[in-house]
Amino acid sequence: PGPKTAVFIDEAMHCSPDFESNGLKPVNSAMYFKSLADFFSVFEEKTGLRVVIAAHPESDPEFLRNALGKRPVYQGKILELIAGCECVFAHWSTAVSFPVLCKKPLLLLNNQAIKETSLEYILVNMAASLGVPVLDLDDKMALQAFNFDHTSWPMAGYENYKYSFVLRKDAPELPSWRIMADAILNRYYNVSWL
After folding, report:
1. Is the Cβ–Cβ distance between 16 and 48 less than 8 Å?
2. Beta-carbon neighbour count of residue 168 at 10 Å?
């Protein structure tokens, strides 16, 4: 087995068509990626964990690899990466459901490039919903005070988030195909498989 990892969920903040379709500018790439890469280097040095990137489908893996300090970049493997990691970094991706379901410590990252998009409120609301911290990577005092021990990052809000945004409390713990098959059988044949 390789070194233990921390996963960064890339959200294509530099190139997502969602920005353009909503009349927004993507982040300033140079500012955004420098801030992330510098933090990842410090995090790796202090924790011994290797940061790997779970690339958004819209992102170019080679671009990300170069922009984030030659760190490993994977596309289409986000669940596997999160299931096997020690902790996760994100901004406001819906993929934060994966660390919640896998019970992995999560830290939301902010920086000046994100603040300049006027979308910081989404990050703040995501953090409040999850009960997790937000770290401003460009705030030197916040970085100095930051606790790099990911095992102490709060996860108490995960259950509330899970049942508010991911699934209902009364949902059966079954594969989705089986739930769907039962719904069809019940609706059209008045029988239940469950």
Report:
1. no
2. 8
Neighbours of 22 (CB within 10 A): 9
SS3 76: coil
Structure confidence by residue, pLDDT tens digits, 90-107: 999 999 999 999 999 999
pLDDT at 73: 98
| pLDDT beyond 50 at 25 | yes
* Pick from 88, 82, 126, 76: nearest CA to 102: 82
Q: Enumerate residues 6+ apart whose C-beta is below 8 A from 20.
A: 26
Residue ranges with strand state E in the chain: 5-9, 50-55, 73-75, 87-90, 106-110, 134-136
Residues ≥6 apart with Cβ < 8 Å to 42: 143
53 within 8 A of 88, measured Cβ to Cβ = no
Q: Which two tokens stand for residue 192?
A: 């239940």
Burial grade of 115 (CB within 10 A; 0-12, 13-18, 19 or more): middle
Confidence of residue 1 (pLDDT cuts 50, 70, 90): very low
What's the pTM? 0.88
Once rounded to an integer, what is the mean pLDDT over residues 76-82? Answer: 96
119 is written with which tokens? 């979308």
Within a 13 Å sphere around the CA of 127, how many CA atoms are in the beta-carbon half?
A: 18
